Amino acid sequence: MLKSLFQEQLSVEMATTVTVASVEKAPSLTKEVLQARKTLQGLRIRWEADLCQVLRETKANEAHAAREGRPSLFPYLCLLSEGEFAGLLLQTLQALPPQGESLLSLAQQLGLRIFNRHVVQRKQLGDEVRALERRYFEYLRLLASDSRVVVSRLPRQHWEALGAPEVPHEQPWPLPVVVQLGKQLAEVLVQTVKMPGRLAERQDSCKLIPVLYHVYSFRSFRQIGILKPHPAFMQLLATAAERTMTFEAAEVPMLCPPLPWTSPHSGAFLLSPTKLMRSMEGTTQHQRLLEACPPTQLHGALDALTQLGNCAWRVNGRVLDLVLKLFTEKGCPRLGVPAPPSEAPRPPQSRLPRGASPEHKAELRRELARCLKVAREMHSLRTDALYRLSLAQHLRHRVFWLPHNMDFRGRTYPCPPHFNHLGSDLARSLLEFAQGRPLGPHGLDWLKVHLVNLTGLKKRESLQARLAFADEVMKDILDSADRPLMGRKWWMEADEPWQALACCMEIAQAVRAGDPATHVSHFPVHQDGSCNGLQHYAALGRDSVGAASVNLVPSDLPQDVYSGVATQVEVFRRQDAERGVQVAQVLEGFISRKVVKQTVMTVVYGVTRYGGRLQIEKRLRELSDFPQEFVWEASHYLVRQVFNSLQEMFSGTRAIQHWLAESARLIARTGSAVEWVTPLGIPVIQPYHQDAKVLINGGIQSLTFSNSGDTSQKGLTFVSVHDCFWTHAADVPVMNQVCREQFVRLHSQPILHDLSRFLVERFCSGPRVKKVRVARLLDMLLSVPKTGAFNLEQVKHSTYFFS
Fold first, then answer.
1. Catalytic activity, per the record (predicted)?
2. Is the pLDDT of residue 501 over 50?
3. Of 216, 256, 322, 384, which sees the most CB atoms within 10 A?
4. Residue ranges of the chain assigned to CATH 1.10.287.280
5. Distance of CA 588 to the CA centre of its chain
6. How many percent of the chain have pLDDT more than 90?
C-alpha cells in the first residue's frame, strides 16, 4: 500500500501544484453565474496566449542584452516553457486578495516558485526519480522488517544503509536574482492581462482596461508598492464562484512517509526542495554552519525531525462536519470560525455630506478607515480558515504525513503551512492519529484529565480532583458529544472549545464501549510544560526556590508561577501603598494572574522592560473599571515590580540571564555575530545583523529591499508543539517517564560550562582577535554563574512537571 502512496505523492510533486475543491457553499447555477464562468474561461484562454507571446518577446530582449554583455535574466527565463510561466502567473493572479499584495512580496514568491519548479524538473530529466523509487521501496521493506531484525535501526540509518550516493543539491539562487526575476514576470502580468471595460462600466465598450493596477499604499508608516486587482475582476470572480483553489505541492501534507533527514539539504519531500533550517531568504550563514558540521553531530536533530514527520495523521470527520456547518452559514467568531465578508461592518456613505463640519468629516473618515481595516482582517481570517478546511475536506478519507524542519534556534515546525497541528484550537481539533491504540487500563482516565485541562477550569487542582470533576460533569460531556449544536453546549465554555468537543466525543465512544480498555483510540492527549522556559532556567541554575515554583519538585498540587508572581507583586504594592505611593494605591484590587502572565512567560525569551510595559498596558486597558488616566504610570510601575518579583523568586535564573545577555553584548561589540552549539549538536547563529540594501531599478517600480548578508526508542506515537507533547491516551505514562528522564539527562550535562568553553575558544582566541576589546569579554565568559543545591532527580517524581 505504501508503494502506491509513494507513486501518488511523486505524481503530485512532479505536477508541482495540487488543485483542491473549496468548501465555500456552492452557488445556484443561475444564468448570471454560468455567463460569468464562460467570460472568465474566455479571458483566461486569451490571457494565456498573450502572456506566452509577451514572454517570448521578453526572452528575445534578454537574449539580446546577454549577447551585448549587459546584465540579463535570459538563462533563468529558459528554465521553464512560456506556457509554464504563463500558468504560474495566472495562478498568482487568481490568488490575489482584494486589497492586493506588495510587489516585493509577490516578486519574491514568484522567483522562489520558479526555482522550485526548476529543481523538480531537473530531477525528472536524469535518472534521479527512478533511483529514488528503487531506494524508497527498499527503505519501506527495511522498515517493515525492522521488528524482525536483531539490531533496531533508525529510519536515517535504514536509508543510509542502502548505500546509494546523494545527488548534488541545487544551490539556492541569490535573493537579488529571485526578486529581479519575479519582478520582471509580475510586470509582464500587469502589462499583458486586460479585460473589456464594459465589465467595469456596465455599458457597451471595446476599450480594454488593466486587470491589475500598481498603486502605492502606507503599511506600518511605510509607503510600499501594491499590485491590486480591479474591483470589476474581483466581482467577476465572486459571481463565477469557481469552487477550486491551487496550492504548491510543498504546501500540502504528504500522502506517503517523508524522506528521512540525512543531511542539511536532503529530507522531507520527495522532489520539492526543503530547507533543514528556516531562515530569511538571502542568508547563507545557517546553511554554511550546518554543512561545516561533522555529519554525526547533526544526527540527533535529523533523527528528531524524521521521527516527528513519520507520525501518520487523519482528519477527525465528525468535528470537520460541525465546523463546516458553521463556516458555510455565517461563521461563529466566538468559536474561532471566521464570518464571511457579508458580515463585515458597512462603511458610512462614501461621499461626505455637504456642509458637514470638519469634526464630522474627520469622524466619518475614521469610521471608514476602521470598517476597511476590519473588512481586511475578516478577509484574511476567512481565507486562512478556507484553506485549512478545504485541505481537511480534501484529505478527510486519507492518511497523510507532515514533514518537519526547524528554525535557527532548533524549534521544530511542520513544513505544510495551512493544515497542521501547530495552529489554533480549531485547527488542532481537526487532526487525530491515523494509527489507533487500545486505551488500556488507564487511558480513559487520561482522556478525562485532558478534557478538564482543555476547559481551563481546574488548573490549580490535583489530577485526582480533575478526574473527579470529569465524572461529575459526565452528563454534560455526553450531551456535548451527542448534541453539540442543539444541546446544553457545555463544550462551548471551554478555553479550547473545539478540542474539548473532540475529546467529549472520544470519551462518549469509550464509555459506551463494552470495555473501555479495549476501545481503540486515535485521539491525541497532550502534556504541557509548566512555564517551560523558566523550568529550564531553574534546572540550569539548580535554583531550589525557582524549581519549586515551576513544578520541578514533587508536590500534591500544581504550582502556578504566574499566581506566585502576582502574589509577590501584591506584597510590593501593599508596602508602597502604605508609604503613600499613589499609583500603588490606585492599583489596589487590580493585580491578578492575567495582568502579569504574558510578561512572566516572555521574560525568559528576553522581553525588555519596555516590551513588558506594553504587555501590561494592554491588560490594564481591558479592565473596564480601572481608571484609564493611570494606565501609563501603572504599567511602568507594574513592569518594574514584576521584574523585581522574578529576581526575588528566581535569583539563579536572573543571574544566568544577565550572564548570557552581557556575554552576547560584548561578543557583538567585537563585531561578530553571536553563535553557539545546542546540547543536541545544532549550530546556532543569531540572525540579528546589519542588512545590506539592494536596489532594483526600472519597470513599474524600483524595489529596495534588505539582503541579510553574512558577517565575519520506546515505540510510541509522539509529536510536539514546542513544549506541548502529544501521544495516545494509553501511552501517556510512558511519555511522561521518558520526558522526565530526558530533562534530567539534558541538565546533568555541564551546559553553562560547555557554553563558556565554546565561546572562549570561538571569540577569545586566534590571530584576528583584538586583545583590548576581548579582555572584558573573556572575564565575563569565565565568570559562569554559581549554581544552587537543587537535586535534579526530584524532577522524575514531579507529577505536575508536564501535565
1. RNA(n) + a ribonucleoside 5'-triphosphate = RNA(n+1) + diphosphate
2. yes
3. 256
4. 312-401+421-524
5. 39
6. 57
Which positions are catalytic?
A: 528, 597, 723
**Which value, to the nearest 10 degrees, does the dihedral of the CA atoms of residues 441, 444, 449, 454 take?**
150
Q: Which contacts qualify for 124-133: CB closer than 8 Å, 24 or more apart?
A: 124/14, 124/271, 126/167, 128/167, 129/10, 129/14, 129/271, 131/164, 132/270, 132/271, 133/6, 133/10
* Ordered alpha helix ranges (H), 275-357: 285-292, 299-309, 317-327
Q: Which distant-in-sequence residues (6+ apart) come within 8 Å of 628 by Cβ?
A: 621
Distances (CA, A) of 648 to 242, 653, 788: 61, 10, 15
Q: How many CB atoms lie within 10 A of CB 70?
A: 9
What is the grid cell recorded at 695? Answer: 536596489
Of the pLDDT bands very low, low, confident and very high (cuts 50, 70, 90), residue 202 is very low
Decide if 385 contacts 337 (C-beta within 8 A): yes
Handedness of CA 132, 398, 713, 741 (dihedral sign): positive
Q: State how far the Cα of 404 lies from the Cα of 275, in Å rounded to an integer.
A: 10
Cell of 357: 463640519
Provide the grid cell at 508: 462518549
Long-range pairs, 383-386, Cβ under 8 A, ≥24: 383/97, 384/338, 384/418, 385/327, 385/337, 385/338, 385/426, 386/22, 386/23, 386/24, 386/245
CATH ID of 533-651, from 3.30.390.30, 1.10.150.20, 1.10.1740.110, 1.10.8.420: 1.10.150.20
Residue 711: per-residue pLDDT: 45
Residue 16 phi, psi dihedral angles, 5° rounding: 70, -15
Q: Which CATH architecture has domain 312-401+421-524?
A: Orthogonal Bundle (1.10)
The 10s digit of each residue's pLDDT in 626-641 is 988 899 999 999 999 9
